[in-house]
Design brief:
It is built from 6 helices and 13 strands. It is an alpha+beta fold. It folds into 2 domains: about 200 residues, 2-Layer Sandwich (BirA Bifunctional Protein, domain 2), CATH 3.30.930; about 45 residues, SH3 type barrels (Roll), CATH 2.30.30.100. The strands form 2 sheets. The protein has an 8-stranded mixed sheet, with helices on both faces. It has a 5-stranded antiparallel sheet with strand order 12-11-10-9-13, with no helix packed on it. The longest helix is centred in the C-terminal third of the chain and has 20 residues. Bound molecules: biotinyl-5-AMP. The site of biotinyl-5-AMP (BT5) has 33 residues, from helix 2, strand 4, strand 7 and strand 8. The site of biotinyl-5-AMP has 33 residues, from helix 2, strand 4, strand 7 and strand 8.
């Protein structure tokens, strides 16, 4: 199943390394034509001591995953499907900062390579014209009170045709937004450079919380947030250092939500929570 390869037509290890210019991120690339999940593989490697910055990349995933055992669907060759192994200098309760910096780096790389302006949706989505084009899944291993490693998994719909996903996903891709095919390698290189820059900031103690909060279209909106079997409606006022959303309920109480699925409160069906389980 997990067959390593040197590359397909537009994606190859040699092309990725050519002119990459990073010190750590993506200096070692493991590229697969097809894998179950790049996150699952990266976690195994991280547990075996794989170095920070190693990139696991696939053209296709047979069991790509989102949060809460949801599926991430992407026809072969249409997307960036990647996982990076990190050993961030933060406490486990602040590990969401990895998702924040990856989301901002992804947004910046998209703008630099395509001119498209993406917005972020709490807690882990990237939107283009209000529709989901990317998602981030950060998975951790914690030993005692220490964070061993974080695997940050990024799925981005690059050249995905409009009919590739169920309409209930309300998804889009760079190609659909731009009306042109987007080369994946320059975008990936830009993303790795941006992650490296932001990671260096983090190591210097510069956290991206306020920048992330400003990029979240969720803040200032009246939203419905589904958390498992519970649903809360209120004004999304802020996020805190741990990435939790502060929701002002109609009764005036302030609720802190560590995770959930948010959508505008006016949305008739609530947020899409798992059309592809
Ligand atoms: C996410 O989960 O958005 C995180 C997705 C992370 C995927 C990457 S791919 C590389 C790496 N390896 C992995 O195995 N995973 C990571 P969540 O917020 O739970 O959203 C999942 C939901 O998004 C699904 O239930 C669908 O509704 C929707 N969805 C699935 N595939 C999609 C796609 N390609 N584009 C837009 N929406 C999608």
């Amino acid at each position: 199943m997990n067959g390593r390869c040197m590359g397909s037509a537009d994606l190859s290890v040699a092309k990725i390394l050519d002119g990459l210019g990073t010190r750590c991120m993506g200096r070692r690339v493991l590229l697969y034509r097809r894998v179950d999940s790049t996150n699952a593989l990266a976690r195994t490697l991280a547990a075996q001591g794989e170095q920070e910055g190693t990139l696991v990349l696939a053209d296709e995933q047979t069991a790509g995953r989102g949060r809460l055992d949801r599926r991430w669907i992407a026809p072969a060759g249409t997307s960036l499907l990647l996982s990076l192994i990190l050993r961030p200098p933060v406490q486990p309760e602040h590990a969401q900062v990895v998702t924040m910096l990856a989301a901002l780096a992804l947004r910046d790389a998209i703008l630099a390579c395509t001119g498209l302006t993406a917005r972020l949706k709490w807690p882990n989505d990237l939107l283009l014209s209000g529709r989901k084009a990317g998602g981030i899944l950060t998975e951790l291993r914690v030993t005692g009170a220490e964070l061993d490693y974080a695997v940050v998994g990024i799925g981005l719909n690059v050249n995905m045709p409009a009919d590739a996903l169920p309409p209930s996903f309300d998804a889009t891709s760079l190609q659909q937004q731009l009306g042109a095919v987007v080369p994946r390698v320059p975008l990936l290189q830009e993303l790795l450079r941006r992650i490296e820059g932001r990671y260096a900031d983090l190591e210097q103690g510069r956290w991206p919380i306020s920048e992330w909060a400003a990029a979240l279209e969720t803040i200032g909106q009246r939203v419905r947030v589904n958390c498992g079997t519970e649903s809360h409606v209120g004004l999304a006022e802020a996020v805190d250092d741990s990435g939790a959303l502060h929701l002002r309920l109609d009764n005036g109480c302030l609720l802190g939500l560590a995770a959930g699925d948010a959508c505008p409160a006016t949305h008739p069906d609530g947020p899409p929570t798992g059309g592809a389980r």
